[in-house]
Structure formats: structure tokens, C-alpha cells
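tool=predict chain=A
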Amino acid sequence: QVQLVESGGGLVQPGGSLRLSCAASGSISRIYRMGWYRQAPGQQRELVATITSSGNTNYADFVKGRFTISRDNAKNTVSLQMNSLKPEDTAVHYCYANSVSSGTLNQWWGQGTQVTVSS
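tool=predict ok
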């Protein structure tokens, strides 16, 4: 099992910045991909950005050029630097991790942290 704990959410004005962090514990040697998803009220959970253990990244089109994901394998953390935030970025942001073992995909989620962009 893997436990994920997020930090760094909050209230920010449009155009502002926030940095989300997520710390993994437990069976961390198995983790392949880590990242962030978000879910706004009444909406489905959607991908924001992910990063593999070798540093390959994947971003949703709506955050390209504004958000940067990074990972510290030694500290078992993943971070999301969010710049130029917009009101439509308001959502609960969830840390995500997965691993593949014997052909089985295992996935874990954090409890979520609220990001609110409002003036």
C-alpha cells in the first residue's frame, strides 16, 4: 500500500501562484507514475499533470505553459507549481500514484486539497 498526503492548497487571486506538494509513504519502491488530478463541483475528475520515475511528464492542454510538475525520487515527493491561475482552475486537487506489478495496475489517491482562484 501507498499513502499520499497533499499540502499547499488555498485561496489565491486570478493571475496568482500556488505550489502543491504530495509526500508518499508505504510501498514507495513500487511507484512508477505520480501526479495530480482535479475535480470541480459537478464535474468529473480530470488529469492535470503526471510524471514518471524517469522524469517523463504529461500535461493537460489547459495547463501547458502555466503549470510545472516535478518529482524528487529520493524524498518520495511530487510537486505542482501553478502560475497564472484562473478562476476555472478552482477545484479539489488530488495527488495520484500508480505502479504495475505482474500486469496489474495499482492506483492510489490522496485525500485532496482545495484550490480556489477568486478575487
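The first strand starts at residue 2 and ends at 7. The radius of gyration is 14 Å.
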